[in-house]
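Structure tokens please, single chain.
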Amino acid sequence: MPELTVIMPVYNGELFLEESIESILSQTFSDYSLIIINDNSTDDTQKIIDRFTRLDKRVQCLKNNANLGPAKSRNLAIEIANTEFIAFMDADDKAVSTRFEKQLNYLKTNPEVGVCGTWFTFFGKTDKVVKHSINHDEIKVGFLRSCTIGNPTVMLRKSSLGNLRFDERMKIAEDYSLWSQLIANTKFHNIPESLLFYRWHSNNMSQTKIENLEASEFSIKAKQLEHLGIQSDNPDLEHYVSAVSLKRNQPTVSIIKTIKAANKLKESNKKLQYYNQAIFEKHIDKTIVRTIRNAKNNDRDFYKYVKNESGFFSKITKLDAAIFFLKSYFN
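Here you go.
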């Protein structure tokens, strides 16, 4: 029985699939099984998979009779994986040859960690290294803003995953949803080294997809705030989410509500200790200062509130405070 299962869903991936598979087969760690889920592709994807299954007995294939999407495809493979360690990979990315070796070594050395990601490099249009936070407490707070672990870089313990799975109802951000829930149950870590090349695609997202992404991300952020007693029916939910995730161009009346929500979140976490308080407060302070800087409008009353009542004026740099004053009194 292999020590690791690698899960790779693919749909019409003939352009880059071969390169991706070869990056897995050339890993310095070799004791694994690669499960490729063909999500009812209509191009030559299956021919490519068949060639590799003949060449290497570690490569297996699941065929979906309909296009089920990446979430369902990954979940199907998770169910049949009979190893404690599971790694994810996308069919158009490339893994650095030492990726599995380094992640496995880290997980084995740190049994309290259930999920291990890595930094990664965008390639195609640009060569930018994405350096997510490394330690657990910072990753956990970072999830309030965005997904702070690269899905195709993840290696995890199946025992840590428990009954959680990718949300098959979501057509976008299903990875963000899963990891933001799982981090409540186990420790996370990102290896501070780029061990994956993440392919940059030039095609722009449609307006519908952008709107769906924004709605999905809002619900994911709101769900995390339940740990601090903020329920989905809270009339000020929008302002609580804005307190932990920057929303630009807000009118001053909305920013005041967001500031009040931010102060309540600080107090709530101080009692519940769900997040590291110092990291949590630093995150909120940065969000509120940027919110004030990006206000839709400024006036004297708003300036006086921020300076005398908000509790955030001391967090603003002297230069930004001067600009804020000028905008409020002379704009």
